[in-house]
Amino acid sequence: xxxxxxxxxxxxxxxxxxxxxxxxxxxxxxxxxxxxxxxxxxxxxxxxxxxxxxxxxxxxxxxxxxxxxxxxxxxxxxxxxxxxxxxxxxxxxxxxxxxxxxxxxxxxxxxxxxxxxxxxxxxxxxxxxxxxxxxxxxxxxxxxxxxxxxxxxxxx
Length: 156
Fold this sequence. Notes:
The radius of gyration is 32 Å and the shape is rod-shaped. It has a domain at 33-136. The termini are far apart. The longest helix is centred in the C-terminal third of the chain and has 36 residues, at 90-125. By secondary structure, it is an all-alpha fold. The protein contains five helices and no strands.
């Protein structure tokens, strides 16, 4: 009975010792890992990832304003997470930086598309002389039509 209890306890103790050695190797000191900071950091990274995927959904619907807003929000949340990564496992910072890179790439592309569309709108707001003549002709026709209906007598 004692042997079976030791065989159950020993691997658990060895596992704890190995975990403590890992913490010492990662953090440079033995002790307790800052789990509350870890959880807070992970929460921020998941919020940023959620905003990234919401931006992907907005992209699928050609809603570039919403896409850019979600990407900017994700970037702000990741910046907040970056301030909390001191003392945490190194691979967390690696994962955050990969998401940060994906955000930067997509944000640059979204801004480029948005600027291209805005440039197209600017061209539409500055019509050519031919387009002006069409606009003036259409406006004149509308004015004539409205004035003739306003001055006609009402039916009995």
